[in-house]
Every structure is written in C-alpha cells, then in structure tokens.
C-alpha cells in the first residue's frame, strides 16, 4: 500500500507546543513584580492540581515552568535615588505636546495602559539616563521628549 493512503494519527497534524519565550536580557523586577510572579505561581499550582486530565494540565504546566524560571532568574532592583531615570523610576514627560507618566518596570510586570512600561521598550530606553529638564531623542527626532519629573516607583 502506498504511503499516501495510510491513515495518520490526528497528533501528526497538531502544531508543536513550544515553551513560552523568555524575554532576552536580565530579569529585573520591582518588589511589586516579584509579588506578582509569586501570585501567578500559586494560582497556576492550584490550577494544575485541579486539572481534569493530562491534556488539560499540559498548558498549565508549561505556564508554570515559565513563571518558575522567571522567579529563579528575578533580580529585584531598587529605583535610582539620584534623580536620573532608571529601572523603577516614575517619569513624567512631554512627547509631541502631550504629557504622560510611566513607571519603568520589568518585562512581566509591564502594562502600558496602566502606565507600567517595560524597561526594555524603546520609549523606556530613550528615557534611561535622563534627568528632569532634559530633552532626549526618540523615534529619529532630536529633543522629541522633554523629561519633566523623575521620581521613585509610584
């Protein structure tokens, strides 16, 4: 019989399930970020224990491996106290005539809609090292961002 006519199992047509990608670079976290990781692990462990079968447990176990790796590699980092924008800083700035405020946090804690910006985001990288009153380049434009206030996480 030709190979073209053999019945393949349904599993052969499924997309492979890869591990969740770990963001590149150091895993800097704020104290709030570390607490969020712990909460996520507790919730996933409870969900794994309550999983109905092995198939239901697989995606939960995959997520749990990701968060345990993030906990193991977490580097809790305090915000700078010298008025220079860095990890954990709360920054108020003007961009394109519009005033905004963000706090620079770790990749897993980031929520741009809530003003929590990953320290690895392009806007955060542009702000890093600036001080209040300084203008910095962004998106190919010199002096695109005016830094108004730099404070600790808040």
UniProtKB/TrEMBL annotation:
SUPFAM superfamilies, per this entry? FKBP-like
Which intervals hold domain Transcription elongation factor GreA/GreB C-terminal?
Answer: 82-149
**Gene3D superfamilies from the xrefs?**
Transcription elongation factor, GreA/GreB, C-terminal domain
- GO biological process entries: DNA-templated transcription elongation; regulation of DNA-templated transcription elongation
Keywords in alphabetical order, please. Answer: Kinase, Transferase
Q: Which domain of life is it from?
A: Bacteria
- InterPro entries given for it? GreA/GreB_C_sf (IPR036953), Tscrpt_elong_fac_GreA/B_C (IPR001437), Tscrpt_elong_fac_GreA/B_fam (IPR023459)
Q: Name one GO molecular function term.
A: DNA binding
- Name of the protein in question: Nucleoside diphosphate kinase
User: What are the top taxonomic ranks of the organism?
Assistant: Bacteria, Pseudomonadati, Pseudomonadota, Alphaproteobacteria, Sphingomonadales
């Amino acid at each position: 019989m030709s190979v073209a006519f053999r019945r393949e199992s349904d599993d052969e047509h499924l997309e492979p399930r890869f591990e969740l990608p770990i963001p590149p670079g150091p895993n800097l976290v704020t104290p709030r970020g570390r607490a969020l990781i712990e909460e996520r692990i507790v919730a996933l462990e409870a969900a794994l224990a309550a999983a109905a079968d092995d198939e239901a447990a697989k995606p939960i176990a995959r997520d749990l491996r990701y968060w345990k790796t993030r906990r193991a590699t977490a580097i809790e980092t305090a915000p700078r106290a010298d008025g220079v924008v860095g990890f954990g800083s709360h920054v108020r700035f003007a961009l394109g005539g519009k005033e905004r405020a963000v706090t620079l946090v770790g990749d897993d804690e980031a929520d741009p809609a809530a003003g929590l910006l990953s320290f690895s985001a392009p806007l955060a990288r542009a702000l890093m090292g600036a001080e209040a009153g300084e203008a910095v380049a962004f998106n190919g434009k010199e002096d695109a961002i005016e830094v108004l206030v730099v404070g600790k996480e808040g």
